[in-house]
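User: Hi! I have a protein structure encoded as tokens and I'd like to know what sequence might fold into it. I'm fairly new to this, so please keep things simple.
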């Protein structure tokens, strides 16, 4: 097993005591961390890394995204949410091909590795192609194949049986770096009978469920009218929140205290994606209410059609600043709290409970940042530097399960030049197909 010693490094551990170390060291053996602050006795490294002027932190976990939507980055700007979805996103996705998902997700993986992200929680189509990207890139991921339960969804990849075959094909693969979830789109699109079937399957096969929930007032009003209860209560009634592998509910912008109680009781996790909320003017929830219910809240970038990047440093900084603003309280959402949401909370929700902390025995998921940058000096408070000043581009190195995915800003597992070229070409083609189908529609 390879042994790596990272020396002369500042460390934000995110351990229970919130330990921060200066000019210290980290020892890694195989896939695990074996020393923080000092190497174990007799530790003989195969590789020594002088990390002077660098900071080590637990690598980030992106708790909700649609990675292949990198293809639609900058393609649906300055539109109201219904027009953004119906006139742009659905139309482009109706022309989506499997290879688009391959290159789109690979582009996202390059971007996330460059930004210090070890794992991502993806919800999209043609997920075999995303699983291949996970396998090749060395990243961790929880993957859910999006299903609607209405109409003929064969066009965009999977019916429910196809999803189950996808889960069977990939379970236990990629050296244990993959988690597989069922991915009904949402209670506002999926019919109740279909959601109930999904809940039954989750119980039969011991799976988790990842879906969108309570994104607008209209969704709540429609649910009250159609089902006599809120979207959260509706999912609970159908057994969705009780999925044995956990339920990850993206967004939850409009939830009552009773809803929060239910989500907490069922140990569901909420994925919070603040940049989408601001960009699409959806509203921002007061997360102090979620904290009062001791609900797990993790942070995601969402898809690059609504953000429009996958920079988790931006997402976590916006989470902190927005909560101070929304709660009218500058003490709200301290730096340590938001860093834990962007690392260990996401990892736990996705099924990687040991990740998100630099501690002996934890998986060696480590991001190194170059701190010798004007915007990161002086270093009064390393947590404040990370939350309020650091950017994805400050990350120089990323290790996942003890394997370097990036060293000195060079990607080691993915062919970035080829991926950029193929994604640019594929995205232009997708858009021109979309234009053709719109023209055909208008004729
Ligand atoms: Zn989403």
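Assistant: Happy to help. Inverse folding works backwards from shape to sequence: for each of the 443 positions I chose a residue that suits the local structure. Here it is:
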């Amino acid at each position: 097993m390879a042994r790596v010693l990272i020396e002369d490094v500042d460390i934000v551990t995110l351990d229970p005591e919130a330990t921060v170390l200066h000019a210290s060291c980290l020892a890694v053996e195989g896939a695990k961390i074996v020393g923080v602050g000092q190497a174990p006795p007799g530790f003989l490294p195969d590789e020594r890394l002088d990390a002077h002027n660098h900071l080590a932190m637990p690598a980030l976990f992106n708790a909700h995204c649609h990675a292949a939507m990198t293809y639609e980055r900058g393609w649906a700007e300055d539109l109201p949410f219904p027009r953004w979805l119906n006139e742009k996103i659905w139309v482009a996705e109706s022309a989506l091909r499997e290879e688009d998902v391959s290159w789109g997700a690979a582009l996202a993986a390059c971007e996330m590795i460059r930004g210090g992200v070890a794992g991502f929680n993806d919800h999209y189509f043609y997920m075999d192609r995303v699983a291949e990207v996970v396998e090749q890139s060395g990243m961790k991921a929880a993957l859910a194949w999006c299903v609607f339960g209405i109409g003929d969804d064969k066009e965009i990849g999977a019916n429910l049986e196809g999803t189950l075959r996808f889960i069977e094909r990939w379970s236990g693969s990629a050296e244990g770096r993959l988690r597989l979830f069922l991915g009904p789109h949402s209670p506002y699109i999926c019919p109740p009978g279909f959601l109930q079937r999904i809940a039954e399957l989750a119980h039969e096969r011991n799976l988790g469920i990842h879906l969108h929930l309570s994104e607008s007032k209209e969704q709540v009003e429609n649910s009250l009218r159609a089902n006599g209860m809120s979207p959260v209560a509706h999912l609970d009634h159908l057994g969705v929140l009780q999925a044995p592998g956990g339920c990850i509910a993206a967004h939850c912008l409009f939830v009552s205290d009773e809803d929060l109680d239910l989500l907490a009781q069922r140990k569901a996790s909420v994925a919070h994606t603040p940049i989408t909320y601001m960009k699409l003017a959806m509203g921002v929830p007061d997360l102090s209410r979620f904290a009062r219910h001791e609900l797990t809240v993790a942070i995601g970038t969402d898809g690059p059609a609504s953000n429009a990047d996958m920079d988790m440093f931006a997402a976590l900084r916006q989470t902190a600043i927005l909560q101070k603003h929304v709660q009218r309280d500058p003490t709200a959402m301290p730096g340590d709290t938001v860093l834990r949401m962007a690392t260990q909370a996401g990892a736990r929700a996705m099924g990687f409970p040991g990740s998100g902390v630099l501690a002996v025995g934890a998986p060696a998921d480590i991001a190194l940042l170059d701190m010798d940058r004007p915007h990161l000096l002086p270093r009064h408070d390393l947590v404040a530097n990370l939350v309020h000043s650091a950017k994805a581009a400050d990350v120089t190195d990323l290790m996942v399960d003890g394997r370097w995915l990036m060293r000195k800003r060079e990607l080691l597992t993915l062919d970035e030049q080829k991926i950029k070229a193929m994604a640019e070409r594929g995205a232009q083609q997708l858009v021109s197909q979309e234009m053709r189908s719109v023209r055909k529609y208008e004729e």
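A useful reference point when you look it over: The pocket of zinc ion is lined by residues 64, 66, 123, 212, 250, 302-303 (CB under 6 Å). Feel free to ask if any position seems puzzling.
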